[in-house]
Structures are given as structure tokens and as C-alpha cells.
Write a structure and sequence with these properties.
Largest sheet: 6 strands, mixed
Structural class: alpha/beta
Shape: globular
Helix content: 25-40%
Strand content: 15-25%
Number of helices: 12
Low-confidence stretches: 138-156
Mean pLDDT: 82
Order of helices and strands: EHEHEEEHEHEHEHEHEHEHEHEEEHEEH
CATH architecture of the largest domain: 3-Layer(aba) Sandwich
Number of domains: 3
Number of strands: 17
Length: about 425
């Protein structure tokens, strides 16, 4: 039995990818070979695959892009969130056990269609263990490669190639029956394992007799766009499912600046607004999305509770426009607008200031030390406050003490501020 992250890393190693891109703070301890912003990285990976290099990219949420030229090698884009629309062939991996079946098929689907293929990984897959090794022998899984030369691929041939890819790949997947509830979360609901960016008659037939489909709030946009947009049906899609939160609990990135912000005791006096688009931050802390200009309007309303805005330096207006309200700036550029905080765990009180980094450039420092003699929460059957309050994936429960995953810990030490016995320092 191996950690699912280790299994994914092993898969990439065996694939012998020439170029690897890992978006900042993706929950996988894999070092990328491509260092650039996400849109440029996608273009670079596509260009590399066009000349025959196998490429892999890991993204939180894959942004829209155009893939209109044939690829000469496999191109896999992994993501931890569902896209808004289907733009390339999609595999959905809901449980760790599916990894061994889906990954080899995804490689073959990309090779055969000449298109990049997306593999969406649920939170359960990224934070679990797998007992089934990933096989790289594709002969017994799908039919042979296309006889047509990929080099002759043209956009006009795209749909025919996609239809053939769908037929070949779907034959190798286990049969499934559509239900009135559709969810990628770990709930008792149906979700397709494979979708193509074309109207597919088989999935239309599965769904056409339904009048309403219920899903979770996170999946609402994707399910609506897939059923009523891509498949051309007219079915009401509504929120009616609750994910099993114990199994799909949101966690922050190691070193997330919001950990330090919410470790401040006076945070309870504030209503927090932010331009940082992070589903985990919204889920855990209930942060309200807003832009800088919207926040100025909120301050003008004179609320009964103090408003606090958290934004990035790159999006911030001039310093004089930050005068109203309390503002914390996450430093993602050299532009210094507010007094800086030297280290993330030095933020003890909410006041106008700049934190030393943002969500996209978290710096790794020396790791915290754990005094096992003082760490007694678990042995006393008490919930570990450091883990529960930080929501940090670098902390996990051992048999008798809390443990630190040294591969992903950023060294922010916010966990130490919560430890009641001073076991962390």
C-alpha cells in the first residue's frame, strides 16, 4: 500500500515526461521542470507535445485554452477541481482505486486523439492510499492505436477522431447507469468516468429521460454546462447533495497566509473580504469575495462590524486609496504599499500591513521542531488543536503524537501558536 501522491509521482517518472509543470501549491510533492505563469506554461507544454515530447501539467483548476493543433506525444493535464466547461477529453478519478485503470487510458487517449487529456482528481484521491499498482501495459486495456497518421490531423477531422477515441476508451471502462443525482464528491451519486468535448449520443441516451439532476454546490456550474450545453439537453440542475465532508475536508496550502491571519485573536472583530479566489479559504473561513473597489464601497456603508480586506500587491491601487478600512496585502510583487511583517507568524494583531508572501510564492523556511514529550493531545484522546485550527495538510496524526510531513511543510510555524503545551516551536 502506497500514498496516492507517491503513486502519481511514480507514474510521471515511468511516463518519462520531458516537461513537467506544477502550479504553485498544488498538493503534490513533485518538482516541475517548467517555471512560468499558468497560461504560458500551458502553451509551452502544448508546443513541446507538438514536436513529440511527453508532457504533464498539474493545476488547481485548468483555465480555458485552445488546443487546435495535433500533438505527436501524450499530454496530460491533472487538476484538483472540476473545470467550468468541457474543452478537452476528461477523465474523472473519484477514488484512489481508479488511478491504476484511468491513468494508462488517459495516456492512450491523448496519444490516439492527438489532443491533451485532462484528469480530474478528487480530494479523496490526492489524500489517500492505493493498494493497486499502476500498470503501464496498455495492450489489454484499449484497442490498438489509430491507423491514421497523427501528422495529417486537421481541425476539420477533430470530431471524427474524438468519436473514435470515445468509442475505444468507453469500451474499456466499466458500464455505468445514470442517476438523478450526479456528483464528483464522495457521495452516493453517479458521475461519468469519461467525457469528450463533443455531443455524445450514449450519454444523451442515459440522461434524456430525466427532468432534474441534483448535484453539490461546487459542481453546479460544470454539471449544468455539460448536460445543457455540451449534450444539448434541457434538464434542471440544482443543488441537492451534500458531500461527505469528513472524507473530502478542505485543507489549505502549507504556509497559507490566511492561517496566520485567522490565528490573530482579534480576527473575531472583523468581517473578512478578499480578492483571493480560493475555494478552501472560502469553505473554511467563510471569506466573502470582493475586489479593492468593492471593499471601498463596503467601508462607506459603515457596517456594525469592522471590515477587513485581504488582497495582493499586484492588484492593489495606490497607497492613498488604501486609507479607508483595514487592509492586509499579500506580497506577490516587489511593490511595497504598507508596513511589512517580517515573518508570517509575526502577525499578532490585525492592522494595515504587508505579509511577506502571497498564495503564489510561499517561501519554505526551516521546519518547526516537535517535542514529543510535550505533545500529548492524541495520547489524551484530545483533538489536536494545531491541525484542526490551521487546516494544514503538512500535519497529520501519528499513533501517539502529531506528525509533520517534511516534504510539504513550509516552516511557517503558525501551528506553534496554537499548541497549548508548546510542543511545537
Amino acid at each position: 500500500m502506497t500514498n496516492s501522491s507517491e503513486s502519481l509521482i511514480s507514474f510521471v517518472d515511468n511516463l518519462a515526461a520531458a516537461d513537467i509543470y506544477v502550479e504553485d501549491n498544488f498538493p503534490l510533492s513533485l518538482r516541475g521542470t517548467v517555471n512560468m505563469q499558468t497560461p504560458l506554461a500551458i502553451s509551452f507544454l502544448l508546443g513541446s507535445a507538438m514536436v513529440g515530447n511527453k508532457v504533464v501539467g498539474f493545476f488547481h483548476k485548468l483555465p480555458p485554452f485552445v488546443a487546435d493543433k495535433p500533438l505527436r506525444a501524450a499530454c496530460l493535464f491533472f487538476s484538483s477541481q472540476l473545470p467550468d466547461v468541457v474543452q478537452i477529453p476528461l477523465f474523472f478519478c473519484k477514488t484512489p482505486e481508479q488511478l491504476a485503470d484511468i491513468l494508462p487510458r488517459a495516456v492512450k487517449a491523448s496519444t490516439d486523439s492527438g489532443l491533451p487529456v485532462q484528469v480530474v482528481l478528487s480530494a479523496n484521491v490526492l489524500n489517500n492510499y492505493v493498494s493497486k499498482p499502476i500498470s503501464y501495459d496498455l495492450q489489454d486495456k484499449v484497442l490498438p492505436h489509430f491507423s491514421a497518421d497523427v501528422a495529417s490531423w486537421k481541425p476539420a477531422q477533430k470530431n471524427e477522431k474524438l468519436k473514435t477515441t470515445y468509442t475505444y476508451t468507453a469500451q474499456a471502462l466499466p458500464p455505468q447507469e445514470a442517476q438523478e443525482s450526479i456528483s464528483f464528491e464522495l457521495v452516493d451519486a453517479w458521475f461519468p468516468e469519461f467525457i469528450m468535448p463533443i455531443r455524445n449520443s450514449a450519454q444523451v441516451d442515459q440522461l434524456k429521460n430525466l427532468t432534474e439532476v441534483k448535484t453539490t454546490e461546487r459542481e453546479l456550474v460544470f454539471v449544468h454546462n455539460w448536460i445543457n450545453g455540451l449534450l444539448g439537453l434541457n434538464i434542471t440542475v440544482s443543488v441537492g447533495l451534500e458531500p461527505e465532508l469528513a472524507l473530502t475536508k478542505s485543507e489549505l496550502c502549507p504556509g497559507c497566509p490566511f492561517m496566520a491571519i485567522y490565528a490573530c485573536k482579534d480576527i473575531v472583530a472583523y468581517a473578512v473580504f478578499s480578492s483571493v479566489c480560493c475555494a478552501a479559504v472560502r469553505d473554511i473561513y467563510g471569506v466573502t469575495p470582493a475586489t479593492y473597489s468593492e471593499f471601498r464601497g463596503i467601508v462607506a456603508k459603515k457596517l456594525n462590524i469592522q471590515p477587513l480586506f485581504v488582497g495582493t500587491a499586484s492588484d492593489a491601487p495606490d497607497a492613498e486609496q488604501l486609507a479607508n478600512g483595514t487592509v492586509l496585502i499579500l506580497q506577490d510583487t516587489a511593490k511595497q504599499l504598507l508596513p511589512p511583517i517580517a515573518a508570517i507568524n509575526k502577525l499578532k494583531q490585525i492592522k494595515n500591513s504587508s505579509l511577506p508572501y502571497s498564495c503564489t510564492n510561499i517561501k519554505k523556511t526551516s521546519l518547526p521542531k516537535l517535542n514529543v514529550k510535550k505533545c500529548n493531545c492524541i495520547s489524551s484522546t484530545i483533538k489536536p488543536i494545531c491541525k484542526d485550527n490551521t487546516h494544514c495538510p503538512a500535519l497529520y496524526e501519528g499513533e501517539e503524537t502529531i506528525q509533520i510531513n517534511k516534504l510539504i511543510c513550509s516552516g511557517c510555524r503558525v501551528c506553534a501558536s496554537y499548541c497549548p503545551t508548546k510542543a511545537l516551536s
